[in-house]
Design a protein that fits this description.
The chain is built from 20 helices and twelve strands. It has about 600 residues and is an alpha/beta fold. The chain has two domains: about 210 residues, no CATH class; about 375 residues, Alkaline Phosphatase, subunit A (3-Layer(aba) Sandwich). The strands form two sheets. The protein has an eight-stranded mixed beta sheet with strand order 4-3-5-1-6-7-2-8, sandwiched between helices. Strands 9-10-11-12 form a four-stranded antiparallel beta sheet, with helices on one face.
Length: about 600
């Protein structure tokens, strides 16, 4: 732990001297927020010493001592090299040391060319000194403890179990439900500070494990040139834009609703009485009637909506901070154009590396569960929707304009706990889901009633969209395209009055929202290459549905789900349709290849 702390201070000083993007006052925070990943990395590295120590209690052989001594030397040397190399990798690439950096070991000249001779010689000299000093400390302090500490025979086995159990707790970063990840070190809108807080040894090990799992040429169906051409045809259209937003620079607010399937929206063929306030938004806004979520999880939806990047089979790009750093984002683009950006969520930002992703997106203000009173954190996942919506509305009243604000609800997530009585009192999942959806709808109704009274509302564009669908309340199959069918409405004072109450019937995906919004604001959408403008009359209408073992595809006239092995249709509507599986598989192939290259 001392070793990691000293190198973090060196990293801090190295970048402070190099960029000057922060000050000395930030050092305590980087040390504090780096502790959990330091503990996790230390837990991994302690497993072998714990086993050797336990073995030495039974067999006091010189060979065991020698193995322990060699392990310490290798550990100190390897970690010193990795942590030192991390300084130069970060300066060159802006990322922590990873698999891609290790591939340069095959070309040492490329490494030495990146640093001056003075830096190279001084670096090697300091590296030798550090390894020597820490190994001497190991010999003076750790080796005697290893040799002289004797445990009574009856409790040796118990002690070994306790040691290994302690290592596991450290590796997981504590006793919480989910193992620790990079998000616990993300505390600042300054990405350099977040990267300093991340333990480079832990990060490299995690990255190598991810790379290993990506081997095997998954989702390669055709020659890449063929698949690329087939995919680009989907987006290769001239622009004939329908402009539905009033001129100027309107405020933009995106509200993402947890698990809000079209099956509870009456205007989309869903059950009546569950979402009456959403119906009011539809009547006062522009409804996109055939929108589908590419993914089935919230972490996929964040990247889909905010970065215009579809969900990937087997993986979730949000779990890879090094990759999300290379994705475009609406927040970043709008911030460049003078918008103040904010994000609101009542849950835990450590969820699937959400904190890292939001910081990569450049949000200037991030509100999460930790910002609410304990009395407001009564939901399983955090603060209920009424508190989160109220907090955002209060903040918008004092926020500099134009602003871009994103809010994610959570009350309609399983286990569907709500803080007030609802018209749905049954104990079945169906009824519990409808109760939670009704509660969220009630919160939205109260929110918009208040928002319309605010002076900024007349110049604000609201986009309300679900993160994904749900099996409830109609027990949809995972392989049905209807389980991904979601509502998307544009409303607010900045919407042209002529388009209120109108419907767009183009088939599309939630990741098409990014290009759609930017073009309505007369901004460049070219970085969002996977986003297909929903208000371009000449667009090709389609929606991609991500599944690990199959590909889903929806057009204006048909829908299908095709299983990769044994290469058959799981689902096809209508039965007489002739699905274009070649284009669908080409799309998945190119999407996954880009994911690997990020």
């Amino acid at each position: 732990m001392i070793f990691f702390t000293l190198f973090r201070i060196v990293f801090f000083l190295f970048l402070l001297n190099d960029s000057g993007n922060y000050s000395w006052s930030d050092l305590p925070s980087t040390l504090l927020y780096g502790l959990r990943l330091d503990f996790s990395a230390t837990g991994y590295l302690m497993v072998i010493p714990a086993l050797l120590f336990g073995l030495y209690q039974f067999f006091t052989k010189p060979a065991i001592k020698q193995i322990f001594r060699i392990y310490n030397l290798l550990l100190i040397a390897i970690c010193s090299i990795l942590l030192s190399s991390n300084l130069f990798v970060y300066r060159s690439w802006g990322t922590l040391i990873n698999y891609r950096a290790l591939t340069f070991l095959n070309d040492p000249s490329a490494i030495t060319a990146s640093v001056s001779n003075i830096e190279l010689f001084v670096g090697i000299g300091l590296l030798i000194i550090i390894v020597f000093l820490f190994f001497r400390l190991s010999e003076k302090i750790i080796m005697p403890a290893f040799i002289n500490c004797r445990i009574q025979t009856p409790v040796i086995a118990f002690s070994i179990i306790v040691w290994l159990g302690s290592c596991i707790i450290m590796i997981r970063g504590g006793l919480q439900m989910l193992p620790v990840n990079e998000s616990v070190a993300a505390f600042s809108s300054n990405q350099q500070l977040n990267h300093i807080a991340v333990n480079p040894v832990w990060h490299l090990g995690h990255n190598l494990n991810q790379v290993r799992s990506e081997k095997g040429n998954l989702y390669l169906f055709y020659d890449n040139a063929f698949a690329d051409k087939r995919t680009k045809v989907l987006y290769d259209t001239s622009e004939n834009l329908i402009t539905v937003v009033k001129p100027g620079h309107p405020n933009v607010v995106i509200i993402m609703i947890e698990s809000y399937t079209a099956d509870i929206i009456a205007s989309l063929g869903g059950e009546k009485g569950v979402a009456p306030n959403f119906e009011n938004l539809i009547h006062d806004g522009l409804l996109f009637r055939r929108i589908f979520s590419s993914g089935a999880r919230t972490d996929q939806a964040f990247v889909s909506v905010l970065s215009g990047f579809p969900a990937q089979p087997e993986k979730s790009v949000m779990r890879y901070p090094d990759k999300t750093a290379h994705l475009p984002s609406l927040s970043d683009e709008l911030k460049k154009n003078g918008y103040f950006t904010s994000f609101y969520y009542g849950g835990d930002l450590d969820f699937s590396n959400l904190n890292s992703y939001l910081n990569n997106c450049g949000f200037q203000k991030i509100i999460s569960g930790s910002d609410f009173n304990k009395s407001q954190l009564s939901a399983k996942w955090g603060a209920h929707d009424e508190f989160v919506l109220s907090r955002q509305l209060k903040d918008l009243n004092t926020m500099s304009q134009p602003f871009f604000s994103v809010l994610m609800t959570l009350s309609s997530h399983e286990p569907y706990d709500v803080p007030i009585p609802t018209p749905f009192n049954g104990s079945s999942l169906n009824e519990k889901y409808k109760a939670s959806a009704w509660y969220t709808d009630r919160c939205l109704g109260n929110y918009f009633n208040e928002a319309k009274k605010q002076p900024w509302y007349a110049n604000t564009l609201y986009i309300v969209v679900a993160d994904h669908g749900s099996r409830e309340p109609r027990g949809r199959s995972y392989y049905s395209h209807q389980i991904r069918y979601i509502p998307l409405v544009i409303t607010g004072g900045a919407l042209k009055d002529i388009y209120r109450g109108t419907v767009v019937d183009n088939t599309g995906s939630q990741h098409d929202l990014a290009a759609t919004l930017l073009r309505q604001l007369n901004l460049d959408a070219s970085p969002f290459v996977w986003s297909n403008n929903l208000l371009n009359i000449n667009r090709n209408d389609f929606a991609y549905l991500c599944m690990d073992d199959a590909i889903g595809w929806v057009t204006d006239s048909s829908a299908f789900v095709y299983e990769y092995e044994p290469q058959k249709f799981i689902y096809k509507r209508p039965a007489s349709a002739i699905p274009d599986t070649v284009t669908a598989k080409s799309f998945v192939q190119q999407l996954y290849q880009q994911f690997l290259k990020l």
